[in-house]
Structures are given as structure tokens and as C-alpha cells.
Automatic annotation (TrEMBL):
Keyword Signal in annotation: yes
Stated name of the protein: Polar amino acid transport system substrate-binding protein
Lineage: Bacteria, Pseudomonadati, Pseudomonadota, Alphaproteobacteria, Hyphomicrobiales
Name of one Pfam family that matches: SBP_bac_3
Keyword check for Transferase: no
Annotated organism of origin: Pararhizobium capsulatum DSM 1112
């Protein structure tokens, strides 16, 4: 009987091997970006610590946002971050949050004089963002007529600084990081606050989602999240 059991065990060596969770993100400093060939950022550091705490295998990859977002919707064992959580996205994913709590802001090129006082006034201008970005959902939901889409935030910023668009949408904390880096941008219109986190395919087991959520809550409770935010020049999540 012992020999039979041993033979069966050898026949199924992969059963005990957990499939790595695919964690996808985009170039969107200071939350997730490539530096000297390595993926880093305020959100990336939190995610690495979460996965280490629960001892779960994962693969991390940077892609254009639209591709990363689509894969998380359609592929098993896949999550995307740092993802804004709104009503439209709520039921399409399982969520671990908050990696970030922040406001959205419309940003203008410094000295441009573009000064919309309301959302309705901003509709006169061409607004830049990224396909499937949270801000794109906001713009389409509010029926903005002139939306310019780019592959990533850096491309949108270049369009703004080269006068190819009038305004761009980003998070308030990202805007503050841009200012600290000497980018020639100014706030034009501050919008409402939102939560951001990991959006996971509905196939990801609830037990794993629960462990990841608990690991994130531990990072928040012991001050690690605030320390990481400070390391990247960001205000704490409050």
C-alpha cells in the first residue's frame, strides 16, 4: 500500500503548487513605475509587502493601462492596480483597498490661463486622460465632448506641456508629485475624492482576497502605508 500511495503522489506533483497571482499595473508615478529596470512605487511597495505577509506567489508586470485593465476583467487569477473604485466598476471585480484615498484634479499647463470654475465650464476644453482610466469613466459619465486618449500618463502630460490638450485629469497626489519634480503644471479644478486599490478578476478565491485585504489593513494600522506615502512625497491617506 505504501508503494501505491507513493506512486500516486508522484503522478500529481502539481496539485500542491499554487498558481501565481498575476498583478498588473501601469506607468503612473509615484504609485507604480519603472526605475532602473525595476517596478517600484508607493502602491507597488504596499502590494509586495502584502503578498510577502501572506506568503502567496505572484507575478508583477507593467503594461499600458487599457491592456492591463482588460486582462484583469477577462483573465483568471489576475488583478490590476492602482484602480479607482466607482459604481460602474464595483461588481466587475473583487476589491482590496485602499492603497490610496485621493481627489481627482484637472491640471493645466502653468501660465495657460485656462480656468474652468465648474465641471460644465470645463466641457469647453479638450481633456486628456488614458483609455479605461478612472478619469475616463468620469469624463464619459459626465458627457465631456472633447476627450483626448493616450496610452499612459506620461504621454498625456507631454501633450499638455506641448499645448496639444487644454487640461489633463490626474489624482491630486500625483499632481503634487509632478510639482515636486518641477513639472510646469497648475491645478485648474479639484473634483471629488475616491478610493483606489487592487481590482481582481471575479475568479480569484474569496479566501485569497480576504487574506490580501487583512494584510493591507495591517499595513495601514501599523503606519507602514503612511511611511511609504511619505517616502514618495505623498500626503497620508486621510
Amino acid at each position: 500500500m505504501k508503494r501505491i500511495f507513493f506512486a500516486l503522489a508522484l503522478s500529481f506533483p502539481a496539485i500542491a503548487q499554487a498558481e501565481p497571482l498575476k498583478l498588473l499595473t501601469e506607468e503612473y508615478p509615484p504609485y507604480n513605475f519603472t526605475s532602473n529596470g525595476a517596478i517600484t512605487g508607493a502602491s507597488v511597495e504596499q502590494v509586495r509587502l502584502m503578498m510577502k505577509a501572506i506568503d502567496a506567489p505572484f507575478e508583477l508586470e507593467i503594461l499600458p493601462w487599457a491592456r492591463a485593465f482588460a486582462r484583469a476583467k477577462n483573465e483568471d487569477s489576475t488583478c490590476v492596480f492602482t484602480t479607482g473604485h466607482d459604481d460602474e466598476r464595483d461588481k466587475r471585480f473583487k476589491w482590496i483597498e485602499p492603497l490610496l484615498i485621493d481627489k481627482m484634479v484637472m491640471v493645466r499647463k502653468a501660465g495657460s490661463g485656462i480656468d474652468p470654475l465648474t465641471i460644465e465650464a470645463a466641457k469647453r476644453f479638450t481633456i486628456g486622460t488614458q483609455r479605461d482610466d478612472f478619469s475616463y469613466s468620469f469624463l464619459t459619465a459626465n458627457e465631456f465632448p472633447k476627450i483626448d486618449l493616450a496610452a499612459d500618463m506620461e504621454a498625456t502630460l507631454k501633450k499638455l506641456l506641448n499645448n496639444r490638450i487644454d487640461l489633463m485629469m490626474t489624482s491630486e497626489k500625483t499632481f503634487e508629485a509632478m510639482k515636486a519634480q518641477g513639472k510646469g503644471v497648475e491645478p485648474a479644478l479639484v473634483l471629488g475624492g475616491k478610493r483606489y486599490g487592487l481590482a481582481c478578476n471575479l475568479s480569484v478565491p474569496d479566501a485569497l482576497i480576504g487574506k490580501m485585504q487583512k494584510a493591507l489593513e495591517d499595513l495601514i494600522a501599523d503606519g507602514t502605508q503612511d511611511r511609504i506615502s511619505a517616502d514618495y512625497g505623498l500626503r497620508p491617506n486621510r
